Amino acid sequence: MSNPSLLILPGDGIGPEVMAEVRRIIDWYGAKRGLVFDVSEDLVGGCAYDAHGTPLHDDTMAKAQEVDAVLLGAVGGPKYDSLDFSLKPERGLLRLRKEMDLYANLRPAQCFDALADFSSLKTDVVAGLDIMIVRELTSGVYFGEPRGIFEEGNERVGINTQRYTESEIDRVARSAFELAMRRNRKLCSMEKANVMESGVLWREVVTEVGKDYPEVALTHMYADAGAMQLTRWPKQFDVIVTDNLFGDLLSDLAAMLTGSLGMLPSASLGAPMANGRPKALYEPVHGSAPDIAGQGKANPIACILSFAMALRYSFDQGAEADRLEKAVERVLADGLRTADLLGQEGVAPVTTAEMGSAILAALDASL
Ligand code: IPM
Ligand code: MG
């Protein structure tokens, strides 16, 4: 049998630095656990635009469709701000999500014990927090037609369309219920059924799917109230399912509960391929952080934990994913902090590569 294949797209800004640490972890799994991956690397985002005049070359898109999983760093930067919308680095990422049909975006917000006092919220509100946001990723207002800026009378009008079909809601709801079954059997669905028809349909379809999962306690919340409850008492939630735009906002909010965006991974999953694995793309929740790019300051943990999610969700290596997550916990407990995690005086930050080395050492120690 051939090795599982990984396409690595480091992207822009801090993407290449954090991905370099992931490559060391991937090599470690090959050398120490016999888990050898066929790794290829390519361009996405601004760097792809610089090289090819497009944020995602067709050849790269084709490769992404063939591999077992894609690992992405980050895209974007101020250099590309004035580009036409269709050429912006973000379009490369959105094209991958759309053409791979990665409809279920899993965004865990987990508070590491060692960082509980790092949150802007009180420690008892966030200590032990472990929630999962399932964000619909390929439809809704991000992709709905009509869209554009049009002339209307003597002024212009900007239009985007929130649009969901029953089947689009059904499939992401099923992903969320399946996850809830493997966790604490609690699912909260968020929309704005009080003002949006798409929200009314969302609630109806999620309720209907829920009949297939009688063990899961399903609740519904308006997304604005959900935002409030997430900051008031986040531990009331386990799995949250919501649409593309609300999911974008709520997952940033949830991320910040944990103290640092630099810690959080994500998985974007689609339908199973012929080999039974889901189409999948893994990426940190954080962006390309152009202000600190190239300085060795970036926190590689979100990207490393994204690889842990790949081990779990694409490669059936749950025990190895646990091992990697424990190694991260270990170095944090030992007090290692990249610059984004510094709050205490007198603690010097470690570099991106030093954090990577420490996690490798913790992996060695786990054997
Ligand atoms: C995210 C980002 C993206 C989004 C951008 C970069 C297109 O904010 O992954 O949350 O809005 O989906
Ligand atoms: Mg976002």
From TrEMBL:
EC number: 1.1.1.85
Co-factor: note: Binds 1 Mg(2+) or Mn(2+) ion per subunit.
Localization per record: Cytoplasm
Binding residues for NAD(+): 77-90, 287-299
Catalytic activity: (2R,3S)-3-isopropylmalate + NAD(+) = 4-methyl-2-oxopentanoate + CO2 + NADH
Record keywords, A-Z: Amino-acid biosynthesis, Branched-chain amino acid biosynthesis, Cytoplasm, Leucine biosynthesis, Magnesium, Manganese, Metal-binding, NAD, Oxidoreductase
One of the GO biological process terms: L-leucine biosynthetic process
PROSITE patterns assigned: IDH_IMDH
Example of a GO cellular component annotation carried by this entry: cytosol
Cofactor(s) listed in the protein's UniProt record: Mg(2+); Mn(2+)
Residues binding substrate, per UniProt: R97, R107, R135, D224
Pathway: Amino-acid biosynthesis; L-leucine biosynthesis; L-leucine from 3-methyl-2-oxobutanoate: step 3/4
A GO term, aspect molecular function: 3-isopropylmalate dehydrogenase activity
UniProt-listed Pfam families: Iso_dh
InterPro entries, A to Z: IsoCit/isopropylmalate_DH_CS (IPR019818), IsoPropMal-DH-like_dom (IPR024084), Isopropylmalate_DH (IPR004429)
Domain Isopropylmalate dehydrogenase-like intervals: 5-359
Chief location: cytoplasm
Residues the entry annotates as binding Mg(2+): D224, D248, D252
Record-annotated site: Important for catalysis: Y142, K192
Top-level enzyme category: oxidoreductase
Keyword Glycosyltransferase: no
HAMAP family, sorted: LeuB_type1 (MF_01033)
Quaternary organization: Homodimer.
Family, as annotated: Belongs to the isocitrate and isopropylmalate dehydrogenases family. LeuB type 1 subfamily.
Purpose of the protein: Catalyzes the oxidation of 3-carboxy-2-hydroxy-4-methylpentanoate (3-isopropylmalate) to 3-carboxy-4-methyl-2-oxopentanoate. The product decarboxylates to 4-methyl-2 oxopentanoate.
Listed name of the protein: 3-isopropylmalate dehydrogenase
The organism's taxonomic lineage, starting at the top: Bacteria, Pseudomonadati, Pseudomonadota, Alphaproteobacteria, Rhodobacterales
Gene: leuB
